[in-house]
């Protein structure tokens, strides 16, 4: 496949100011808002790439992971990340009978709604759950033994079934490079089977919960009409796990396995879906985002590496380390995958990940990424307008 043409908006290669990493301390953040080249200070212009219109189909060749929007992160967002408190873990409150399961619905339409959610018990507790998952894998290799309940094994086998379906539904022959239509066949099999998949592990007294938890599950693997996937879908998977924790189906002692067994299997499934069906990145920030598809494996993966004897954030530039350790460490697997699917210099296609590699400790990386997840994912209307609220995740 030939190389995509490179569009340089400015004659310098490094438009991204390395002082702008949201994970660095406030003192190093420049206050200028105009986009300027960090080498010479000349103004740079960031024009978004031409939109692919619905009327004229895209050309046969589209570079993998065409960025949707390609704007440098705003200094306002970066300040918000830097100044935000580090999120803390929280215990998930269990529900008790009588149960009032309901079909969950969308509630978020504006920044005010986002604030309402962030300040609510549900919003704080959901983020607290994500932090608790992150802490459960702290300083652990993926192969470390962990408590694996029947429920966990059952969920892993469900994900293995979904992986198996991909082999049974080969990609369709089609002229457009992106969005293979066979994904829709895979997705309709998912929606037809979701209820019965839940019943494989829900105890008898909780089977009525399917009405509420299936919508989160069904939205965890991408959108069937757009054939895209992004951090909103990933957040649905975390929300589905959170609902299971609210039900007591997943317990605190399961968290380590939720990350090391369930989430890693989910990642394996998503990477296969992305590669086989050429899923579009949903609302990708192009070069300015962390990654086109995922966020949480960077959070969990940085936690795994906290206090590692010799692996430092800058070790991601060492290909021997990536090759030898990406099976054990999720963060390294993410970096290796990015390097596999993106061509060119790492600092150019992934400036944010490159910046993060300059942060001195994994602890700082992890807390910075947790703050960033809250600001860049959970506080973004385009992502959270699709988020669902029911009896387990309440809209108060």
Automatic annotation (TrEMBL):
Keywords tagged on the record: Cytoplasm, Isomerase, Rotamase
Compositional bias ranges of the Low complexity kind: 22-33
EC number: 5.2.1.8
Entry-linked Pfam families: PTPA
Biased composition (Basic residues): 1-12
GO cellular component, one term: cytoplasm
Subcellular location: Cytoplasm
Start and end residues of each stretch annotated as Disordered: 1-33
Catalytic reactions of this protein: [protein]-peptidylproline (omega=180) = [protein]-peptidylproline (omega=0)
Function: PPIases accelerate the folding of proteins. It catalyzes the cis-trans isomerization of proline imidic peptide bonds in oligopeptides.
Protein name in UniProt: Serine/threonine-protein phosphatase 2A activator
Species the sequence originates in: Castanea mollissima
């Amino acid at each position: 496949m030939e190389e995509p043409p490179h569009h340089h908006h400015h004659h310098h290669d490094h438009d991204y100011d390395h002082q702008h990493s949201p994970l660095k301390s406030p003192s190093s953040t420049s206050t200028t808002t105009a986009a300027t080249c960090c080498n010479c200070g000349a103004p740079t212009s960031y024009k978004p790439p031409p939109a692919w219109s619905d009327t004229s189909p895209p050309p046969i060749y589209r570079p993998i992971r065409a960025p949707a929007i390609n704007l440098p992160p705003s200094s306002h967002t970066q300040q918000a990340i830097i100044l935000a408190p580090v999120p803390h873990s929280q215990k998930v409150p269990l529900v008790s009978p009588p149960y009032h399961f309901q079909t969950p619905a969308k509630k978020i339409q504006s920044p005010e709604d986002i604030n309402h959610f962030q300040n609510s018990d549900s919003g704080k507790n959901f983020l607290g759950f994500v932090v608790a998952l992150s802490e459960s894998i702290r300083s652990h290799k993926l192969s470390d033994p962990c408590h694996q309940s029947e429920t966990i094994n059952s969920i892993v086998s469900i994900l293995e079934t979904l992986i198996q379906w991909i082999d049974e539904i080969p990609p369709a022959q089609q002229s457009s490079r992106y969005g293979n239509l066979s994904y829709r066949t895979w997705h309709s099999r998912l929606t037809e089977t979701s209820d019965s998949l839940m019943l494989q592990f829900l105890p008898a007294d909780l089977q009525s919960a399917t009405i509420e938890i299936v919508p989160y599950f069904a939205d965890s693997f991408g959108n069937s009409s757009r054939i895209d996937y992004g951090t909103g879908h990933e957040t649905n998977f975390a929300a589905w796990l959170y609902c299971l924790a609210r039900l007591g189906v997943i317990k605190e002692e399961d968290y380590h396995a939720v990350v090391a067994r369930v989430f890693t299997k989910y990642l394996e499934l998503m990477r296969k879906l992305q590669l086989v069906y050429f899923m579009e990145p949903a609302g990708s920030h192009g070069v300015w985002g962390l990654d086109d598809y995922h966020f949480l494996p960077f959070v969990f993966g940085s936690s795994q590496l906290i206090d590692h004897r010799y692996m430092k954030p800058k070790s991601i530039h060492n290909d021997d380390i990536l090759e030898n350790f990406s099976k054990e460490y999720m963060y390294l697997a993410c970096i290796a995958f990015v390097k596999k699917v993106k061509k060119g210099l790492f600092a150019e296609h992934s400036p944010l990940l490159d910046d993060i590699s300059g942060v001195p400790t994994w602890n700082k990386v992890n807390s910075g990424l947790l703050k960033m997840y809250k600001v860049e994912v959970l506080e973004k209307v385009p992502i959270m307008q699709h988020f669902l609220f029911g009896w387990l995740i309440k809209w108060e």
